[in-house]
Please model this.
Amino acid sequence: MQDRGVIRTREWQLAAHPHGEPTPEDFRLVELERPDPEEGQVVVRMLAMSVDPYMRGRMRPGPSYAPPWEVGQTMKGGAVGRVVASRSDAAPEGALVLADAAWRDIAVLDADHVTVLPDLGVPPSYHLGVLGMPGLTAYAGLFRVAAFREGDAVFVSGAAGAVGSLVGQFARLRGASRVVGSAGSPEKVRWLVEELGFDAAFDYHDGRVADLLASAAPDGVDVFFDNVGGEHLEAAIGAMRLHGRAAICGSISQYNAIEPPPGPRNLSLLVARRLTLRGFLVGDHADLRPEFAEAVTGWLSSGDLVVRETVREGLEDAVPAFLDLLRGGNTGKMVVRLAQDQG
Model:
């Protein structure tokens, strides 16, 4: 890992801003030398890193809710690792930490830029998924943004992904009258119904989403949690009951679009049915983390929550994992395992 005074790292950098769907040529893996940690810094060996749909937006130049990645910049994202050297009492050697430091195998970081994680007896990668950003996104979007109430009927698009699979389960555990999900393959549909307890699910390739949703939820829905956008959003608006609420989390169907896609054609229903469509960012709901952590750790301990990960091995596989994620190649949370935990 290091010679005296030098720490060698491997890091993925953005090689070009993608035009449409990203390709492997838009990324490059480089070896760099980093200086030994200074006072207040730590060296972290990454155990697992996250790839997430929002990262596609960071590769697009122009104003957004977060600064875009520049060409030549080491890409960032959630990662969990062990502190292997420390010059800070706040993050001692051996501590398990969460950091916005991927895509790399080793990082020298300011100690105040990492979060020391509790020992919950779960795989470290859970802090990137069910106990991490996707889990909090599902919790905040469903319970605060969409104002879920017991007895609501819920529709989740992208329901087999890291966020959607948790939204459906959270709704079921809190007393939803019906939980419906869409996914991209028959295998995912079966997983949603047979293992996660969704009341119904459909493969959106099988027909018009509006028709498939009408069959799965013939009495309509009260809450829509959207990870996909496009045709799914239009179909959900058409299916929503009076005073329905939608939490707009993402629009993965449009992330690679070169031209702006057309919007839903039935927005007049927002007035007639007094609907609420609200976009949100998980960072605006950090105050919910203690409540979220208590609820989710309880569900994990009781065995009421099903967690599934799609795991890729090695830093070299980070880009293929990310590209597969954008094509729907994951079930549950996509993570890249970088090292075995020796802690």
